[in-house]
């Protein structure tokens, strides 16, 4: 069973995904890391050398390959920019949209000095917010459960998902 975590950058997809995979004893895949490993380049290098369109194509291929694989998959924040990805995710059974207030997300993004985010460089708050607002409907289109994470820790989000999975298993 594949469990997909979607949401804007900084929503906690990777952090929650690792916790969830550990608790469910499932493999964990961060799609950005997977794509970088396959390409032999970092995500910023892929963007710089080949453009966002090429990266989105690699992302689509990675999601297609993951559909029949068990595990917890943290998607890239922009995966919903590709209509074919939204369509694939809308057909997947276990998709969770980690939703959070923009200001909280932006603060997390700025505090995370280990992750280079090509689409959220310092001084680009207005552009990042516009991207956040534009993607909200796309995350909804991708289907699944929406979890507002503003007042939840990553552990609490993982627990919420586990409870939801157990409910689904017991109620068909």
Automatic annotation (TrEMBL):
It is an enzyme of class 2 (transferase). InterPro entries: P-loop_NTPase, Shikimate/glucono_kinase, Shikimate_kinase/TSH1, Shikimate_kinase_CS. Its cofactor is Mg(2+). Mg(2+) binds at residue 14. Its main location: cytoplasm. Its EC number is 2.7.1.71. Pfam families: SKI. It catalyses: shikimate + ATP = 3-phosphoshikimate + ADP + H(+). PROSITE patterns: SHIKIMATE_KINASE. GO terms for molecular function: ATP binding; magnesium ion binding; shikimate kinase activity. GO terms for cellular component: cytosol. Binds 1 Mg(2+) ion per subunit. Keywords: Amino-acid biosynthesis, Aromatic amino acid biosynthesis, ATP-binding, Cytoplasm, Kinase, Magnesium, Metal-binding, Nucleotide-binding, Transferase. Substrate binds at residues 32, 56, 77, 135. GO terms for biological process: amino acid biosynthetic process; aromatic amino acid family biosynthetic process; chorismate biosynthetic process. Belongs to the shikimate kinase family. Catalyzes the specific phosphorylation of the 3-hydroxyl group of shikimic acid using ATP as a cosubstrate. Monomer. This is Shikimate kinase. It comes from Aerococcus urinaehominis.
């Amino acid at each position: 069973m594949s469990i997909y975590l979607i949401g804007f950058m900084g929503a906690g997809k990777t952090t929650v995904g690792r916790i969830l995979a550990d608790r469910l004893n499932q493999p964990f895949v961060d799609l950005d890391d997977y794509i970088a490993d396959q390409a032999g380049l970092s995500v910023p290098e892929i963007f710089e050398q080949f453009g966002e369109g090429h990266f989105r194509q690699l992302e689509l291929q990675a999601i297609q390959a993951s559909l029949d694989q068990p595990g917890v998959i943290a998607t890239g924040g922009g995966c919903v920019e590709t209509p074919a990805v939204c369509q694939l995710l809308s057909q997947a059974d276990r998709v969770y949209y980690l939703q959070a207030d923009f200001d909280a997300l932006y603060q997390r993004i700025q505090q995370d000095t280990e992750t280079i985010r090509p689409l959220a460089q310092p001084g680009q708050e207005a552009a990042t917010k516009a991207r956040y607002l534009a993607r909200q409907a796309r995350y909804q289109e991708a289907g699944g459960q929406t979890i507002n994470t503003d007042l939840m820790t990553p552990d609490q989000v993982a627990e919420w998902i586990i409870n939801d999975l157990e409910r689904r298993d017991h109620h068909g």
